[in-house]
Design goal:
Layout (H helix, E strand, L loop, with lengths): L3 E9 L5 E10 L4 E5 L6 H9 L6 E6 L2 E2 L10 E4 L11 H11 L4 H14 L15 H13 L5 E5 L7 H18 L2 E6 L2 H7 L2 E6 L2 E6 L1 H6 L4 H6 L6 E4 L14 E5 L4 E5 L5 E10 L4 E6 L9 E5 L10 E6 L5 E4 L20
Parallel strand pairs: 3-8, 3-9, 6-7, 7-8
Antiparallel strand pairs: 1-2, 1-4, 4-5, 9-10, 11-12, 12-18, 13-17, 14-15, 14-17, 15-16
Length: 356
């Protein structure tokens, strides 16, 4: 395996569209790195530049000690798995797994051994004689993974590999990928728009927006200490609530200008009306089995935006009910309103409901 390093990598297309700019990222040998962000943020472009399918307009890309910026894909010793399985329909699973090795002139015994090992690792032993049309979506995806594994490349590149699977299969295949990475010790660069997928798979997660890296951190650091309001809103489900900083009284963020308060739905507690920091009206209650997702109406929120709160299923919470809410003061987040950057906790005075 090998490390991957992006040094000031940028990509501007002939029409002037800037897909990536100033990407500096070092991926350690054996690391599982996830690139995540909304559609059009540049994450797939970054992956394609690592693969050699796109040429950077600036910067350098290194795999191990080698500068591969100008090398074609076949000379980079990488294997790529796309969201489309790209299997040969007329070949059996065994033939699909072996095809790349045969094209490279590998010895028959070596091909048989690698195919057997990959099939065993991915639970494909019973379907080796079948063709892709006879497989489920999950099985086809495992064959696509196996085809990459048998090559034993320096780096595995995954571009939205689970997006065509249903929710149950995505969870199952996600677990298989994690186990497989643990077994192989492979270097993986994985692209997804699904922040839950990113948080569960990545050793570190690189959040992108408009072609720029916003933050590169372990998953829980992204969740607990987002560097800006974009990362805070993108990471976490349900997403973070953003409230006027003045809700907590006088604030002193520094550098002139206001602050926005961020609080996660799990860090707000529902209590009896009149006994919390503020009162709110229950708008919608969504049962989720072990918890409720409650949408509250607060007069201080503009444009009727709801305050989302995760609550236990008991005691029951009824729609149109008045309740009190309590903020977990130790888990509040503060962002400069002018640019969305995180600031240290400003000075505040105790919360007080209007009129108290």
């Amino acid at each position: 395996m090998a490390s991957v390093r992006l040094e000031g990598v940028a990509k501007t297309y002939p029409n002037g569209h800037v897909a990536a700019q100033g990407l500096d990222l070092e991926i350690a040998d054996g690391e599982f790195m996830v690139l995540v962000g909304p559609s059009g943020c540049g994450k797939s472009t970054a992956l394609r530049m690592i693969a050699g399918l796109e040429t950077p307009t600036a910067g350098r890309i290194r795999i191990g000690d080698q500068d591969v910026t100008a090398l074609p894909p076949q000379e980079r010793d990488i294997a790529m798995v796309f969201q489309t399985y790209a299997l040969y329909p007329h070949m059996t699973v065994k033939e699909n797994l072996a095809f790349g090795l045969r094209m490279r002139g590998a010895a028959p015994d070596a091909i048989a051994q690698r195919v057997e090992e990959a099939a065993r690792a991915l639970g494909l032993e019973q379907v080796l004689s079948r063709r892709p049309a006879q497989l489920s979506g999950g099985q086809r995806q495992r064959v696509a993974l196996g085809r990459a594994i048998v090559r034993e490349p320096k780096v595995f590149l995954f571009d939205e590999p689970l997006s065509n699977l249903d929710a149950k299969l995505r969870v199952e295949t996600r677990a298989e990928l994690a186990r497989l990475h643990r077994r192989l010790g492979a270097t993986v660069v994985y692209v997804t728009h699904d922040q839950e997928e990113a948080m569960t798979l990545g050793w570190r997660v690189a959040v992108m927006r408009d072609g720029l890296l916003q933050q590169v951190s372990p998953p829980m650091e992204l969740y607990r200490k987002p560097v800006n309001q974009f990362v805070a809103g993108f990471v976490g489900s349900p997403e973070m609530n953003f409230l006027p900083g003045g809700l907590l009284g006088d604030v002193a963020p520094g550098r002139g200008g206001g602050v926005t308060l961020g609080v996660r739905p799990h860090d707000v507690r529902i209590v009896s009306a009149g006994s919390g920091d503020l009162d709110a009206l229950v708008d919608v209650v969504e049962p989720r089995g072990s918890e409720l997702l409650v949408y509250l109406k607060l007069a201080v929120l503009p444009h009727g935006a709801p305050l989302r709160v995760v609550a236990p299923p008991e005691p029951a919470i009824e729609e149109e009910q008045m309740v009190g809410i309590v903020f977990d003061r130790a888990r509040l987040h503060w962002f400069r309103t002018e640019d969305g950057q995180r600031v240290a906790s400003p000075s505040v005075r105790p919360i007080s409901a209007p009129g108290k």
